[in-house]
Amino acid sequence: MASRIKTIGGMLRRGEITSLELTKKYLEAIKAVEPSVHAYAKVTEDMALNLAMEADEAFKRGDDLGPLAGIPMSLKDNMTVKDVETTCCSKILSGYRPTYNSFVWEKLSKGGAVLLGKANMDDFAMGSTCETSCYGPTYNPYNKNYVSGGSSGGSAASVASNTAVYSIGSDTGGSIRQPAAFCGVVGLKPTYGAVSRYGLLAYASSLDQIGPIASSVEDAAIVFDAIKGHDEKDHTSAKNAPAEPIASSLAAASVKGKRIGIVKSFYEDLNAEIKEAVFKAVKFYESEGAEIVEVDMPLIKYVVPVYYILACAEASSNLGRYDGIRLGYRASRYTDIDDMIVTTRSEGFGKEVQKRILLGTYVLSSGYFDAYYKKAQILRNRIIASFGEIFAKCDAIISPVATRTAFPLDYASDNPIETYLADIFTVPANIAGLPAVSLPCGKDSKGLPIGMQLIGNKFEEGKILGLAHSFEQSGLSGVTPLEMGVRL
Amino acid sequence: MITKQEVLWLAKLAKLKVEDKDLESLTKDMAEIVDFAAKINSAIAEGEVYKGGTTVRMEELRDDEVKECFPQEVILQNVGGGDKGFFPVKRRKADGK
What we know:
- By secondary structure, chain A is of the alpha/beta class.
- Helices cover 39% and strands 14% of the residues of chain A.
- Chain A has a domain at 4-256 and 465-473: Alpha-Beta Complex (Amidase signature (AS) enzymes).
């Protein structure tokens, strides 16, 4: 898969197309594609045209803004852009216009990025299907009877439907990687602390991480290089993370001699088509000179409950701030201020969000704190330690992204536990703060994309992206860009 | 097993209202999820205690210093500029009108 960012960037720099012309093409494509995909919560047409004209002026002046200058993109609706309504696709934030830019948008806008719009997502990023958005679901561009995945479903669908060159998503338990896998594109969840969370409306602060979704591994690396870096406004932002660019070193990355870990128990009850697709990649790496190492992860059966205990606990605390007083939605009928807060929250949060707030309140409440929250933290530390042992034996772990391909629409609401369990391969990287990339490795019998995941040790994004790039260049995935949206 | 009374108590703590029509299904869903979460008990040995520490390296945290924050008029932009420097909340009569 060629780098779309490099191709378009070359056209812009050679004057073959202006950013304004390109942006108009994307806005027209959005109008044509949106009725069947609905990747956007809000299209920022005027802003996009203005940013495109500014980028063209910069090109004329000869300014070097970087590889993303003039290139149209989408941003998940949980990251702030000054004066642009930011809602987390939740009614409770309707009308909220942030007074500041998120760190990630500040960096991108300084680099000349063109914001096409805010991408649709599950209500407060709580969901695996992008169906809990207050704006309605995002459909899978491969088949609109299936979900796009979540919570960054709009981001993944905008890239897959070629209505954005790349997108920025966030990943708390797989919310970049799973929708990327369901939509046949590439998603990177960076190491915790590698990208500042300033301006990301928090779901679970110790798990949330911002990252790119793109049509190729190289594009994901280019965007990651642009958004990473220390930020004093995020107190968990890493000070000493590697600053060297990754994208420029991908072509020279070698598989030979790399040790790739495989957890046999992951494949025992796995869907046969997914198993076959991932093993095709394992065989590729073996044939290229990698050493395949069997590793054990005995705590895997606990990762999903640990994740849901911790994520819900943090959500119940983080979402306590939404009370209708300072911003967003406020109920119109109430008796006194206490009733206003209760009514606002009950009318403003979606059902899934309310359920997770209640679960979080339960595990943090007196009598259950020791029984659930503290035990989950003990297990989290053990899971982190177990990854330390694994990465002493290998450079990366290969796994499926999800236990299945995209869910049919409306499936998740009737099967909550099964839907939660589908996250079993993605949540470990969040629990341990590790980087992980998902990329297409095949299609199922219904024609839906299958994703594979490479998990690396902390701040070793370069290593997993190098391995991902090698497999992508082999052409073995069989997943090609869809014939929709902008084709250049 | 989580009960309807517990769900109502949690809703009160979380400042949420649970409608009568939703209570049965919400209690059932929450009971299933809590049972599922209880799987972790089998992994914890008797007397094992949490010793702190997760993904964040404490030595990397910034110093807790007071920095300049947004001016009051900016903070109040999302409530129509506020009312004499305050977040306005309309007074309501007991009947909600």
